[in-house]
Write a structure and sequence with these properties.
Length: about 400
């Protein structure tokens, strides 16, 4: 077997996924109408290549297109001549040139990490989940995100997605608070949407109420959650700011519903600290926030050893990133619904969709292709047409 796969270069291609999500198109307060996204191609000296997606959100992850592009140029210089199959050493080289001492460059690094896994998998004839240690499953129940702005619209959407076969619904309960600041009336408006969602949704479907850090107060969170104590399909996601793990412990001990942490999980080490403190029942794992599949696998291992669940999440990504999301979700012991339809419900590439292969979705089930690497490719001519047609 060939073991040394010398990296020739890391190339970047700007792409322009547009938001099609309800509430995102007309809400530029925090949710963007176009997302920073760079396609990454890592080529070996024999011409074989792997592809990845460096995608981020400016507000949410504190990164921009220009910043990711600059990181990727540093990684290109650092990785030329390195062995792509030694993914641990490739990460070491990347953190040595950017973001080793503080969080930074994670989404760019994730794009390279995806491409490395794709490249090595293609050369070895193995799917990425096999490189990561093996799949518990290759078909996944799914979760979708609901940003509807009124209780009526939220209830209707919950029924609609339950009917489509989704097993997890992420009900957003922080947007008004994020836009207007914490106030009693705005808080009650968020709670009314959650109440409508819970009343409408069958109990076999999990409701993750996601506050995106907007509830701010541990005490108010506990008080508010008491009104939902009869709903055993409810979990509360990231009610408090990402660094407030002590507050999260308080909510977990007194709120009466399971606590999910999302923005708090920005590295395997952060997951370890959450586990030590007993600050969560489950985490949301975003592969770009932790720096790729290599770091995600460490995070999953820590969580499973600590008895914490793992829900794998899109950025949102295009089909490239969402396929990578399913490869890491395959490595999670417990089958929590996977959020891998960023490319369906959040984003559109317009008329020049240059991605081929990847996961397929039917009746609320996502399926990985049976193919080496990520199981996905790019039509480079159509990509050029996309780049010519869009404002990049
Ligand atoms: Mg979240």
């Amino acid at each position: 077997m060939q073991t040394d796969i010398k990296i020739a270069n890391v190339e970047t291609f700007l792409v322009a996924p547009k938001s099609i999500k309800e509430a995102w198109e007309d809400d530029d307060f925090v949710w963007p109408s176009q997302l920073p996204c760079i396609l990454v191609r890592v080529s070996a000296e024999d011409g074989t290549y792997g592809i990845g997606e460096a995608a981020t959100q400016e507000w949410y992850l504190g990164e921009t297109t220009a910043q990711m592009d600059a990181c990727l140029k540093l990684y290109d210089r650092a990785l030329r001549g390195a062995d792509a199959a030694n993914i641990a050493q490739c990460h070491r080289k990347m953190v040595a040139v950017y973001g080793g001492g503080m969080p930074g460059g994670r989404s760019a690094r994730c794009g390279v990490d995806m491409a490395l896994h794709d490249l090595v998998g293609k050369i070895r004839g193995q799917p990425v989940h096999a490189l990561l240690g093996g799949a518990y499953r290759t078909r996944f129940e799914m979760l979708t995100n609901l940003y509807h702005k009124t209780p009526e619209a939220m209830a209707e959407a919950c029924l609609d997605f339950a009917g489509q076969g989704f097993k997890g619904l992420k009900v957003k309960v922080g947007d008004v608070l994020l836009a207007d600041g914490w106030g009693r009336d705005t808080f009650l408006a968020e709670l009314a949407k959650l109440e409508a969602a819970l009343e409408a949704t069958p109990r076999d479907i999990m409701i993750d109420a996601d506050a995106n850090q907007g509830w701010e107060s541990a005490a108010w969170t506990v008080t508010a959650l008491r009104r939902f104590s009869g709903f055993d399909n409810l979990s509360i996601e990231q009610p408090l700011p990402y660094a407030d793990l002590a507050g999260s412990v308080h909510v977990r001990n007194h709120g009466g519903v399971p606590v999910i942490l999302d923005e708090s999980v920005w590295s395997a080490e952060a997951a370890m600290q959450i586990a030590r403190m007993g600050a969560a029942d489950r985490i949301v794992l975003k592969i770009n926030r932790v720096g790729g599949l290599h770091e995600a696998l460490k995070t999953i291992t820590i969580c499973e050893a600590a008895g914490m669940g793992v829900s794998v999440d899109t950025n949102p990504f295009t089909l490239i990133g969402d396929t990578a999301v399913c490869h890491i979700a395959a490595c999670c012991r417990n089958p929590y619904p996977v959020d891998c339809e960023g490319h369906v419900s959040f984003l559109s590439l317009g008329e020049h969709d240059f991605i081929t292969g990847g996961i397929t979705i039917e009746r609320g089930i996502a399926s990985l292709p049976d193919a080496p690497g990520l199981g996905i490719d790019v039509d480079w001519d159509v990509l050029a047409e996309h780049q010519a047609a869009e404002t990049l």
